[in-house]
Amino acid sequence: MAKYEYKFQSKHQLNDVSDDSDQLIWVFHVDKIPPHIGISSQGVFFSLKSNGQDEIPTSKVNQIVESKSIKLIKIKLRYRFSPSALKEVFANYTSATSAVCSCLIPIREALQITENVQKLASLLKHLEMHNKIEGWYAENVSFDEAGIRPYEIHDIEKRLDLLNA
Question: Is 0.85 surpassed by the pTM of this model?
């Protein structure tokens, strides 16, 4: 089995990103199956979780990442959207309950992706194919770890069942 279903390339690695001006996808726990994702715009972070959703300042998310040494990759997107547009999308969701309502689904909707993309690697490949990724930035992640490990839809279900138990 391949070590990564999606591997971040060195030529697209950024020295830094701006939480205030860049549109970002945040990939938490890149070493876990499945990882968790969120999205931010203009310093406001949104995420759908098993126990609800986040709409918090990116500075608070960065503090949590730093204090817990979470393996995080931020993906800078070639999109323009506002926190109010994200708020509107996330208002349609209460919590992540299954693969058809996971942390990825409101992000897919916010990015106006109509294809049935249900896994993070598929989302990243789609964005890359449409030239929507400007680059990526890692925190607590070595270059060798900068990838999305293979997993299946049932792994998402299993993880959410565990979190919702």
Answer: yes
